[in-house]
Known about the structure:
Layout: E1 31-35, H1 36-39, E2 47-50, E3 61-67, H2 73-77, E4 82-86, H3 87-93, E5 107-112, E6 115-119
Parallel strand pairs: 1-3
Antiparallel strand pairs: 1-4, 2-3, 2-5, 5-6
InterPro entries: Imm33_dom
Pfam families: Imm33 (PF09951)
Protein name: Immunity protein Imm33 domain-containing protein
Amino acid sequence: MFGRGPRSVRPWYVLGLPDPATMRPLAPDVACFVTNRISAEGAAVGYMVRMPVEPGDRKGNSGWQFMAGDEDQAYIDDPDNSHIFSVNTIANHDPAVIPFLDRARGTAWGRKGNTFVEEPLPWSEDEGPA
Length: 130
């Protein structure tokens, strides 16, 4: 999954995402990680993970990470391939995520048609998230 290094914040329109002037308030305006497959290339969300978040970091961090689902680990590990956006931006880009945004931290979801189904976490219980 995403590392813990610095990331750039992109709170507004990028090639594959909605223009903020047209966005509706569909979801909380809190931070999430998004790969360039979604934000720059316009791919739909294919896989999403809600990471555990440190108690002191919960105010603006949703814990959500959104991916197209076809990114390999080398792509994910490159900090230039993901950025921070508002969850509301992603909800406007792909409204299919909205019913799942209240799911528990430490869960993963894969797209199946127009919905998502729970999937095993991308790490073992013993190792925890990267």
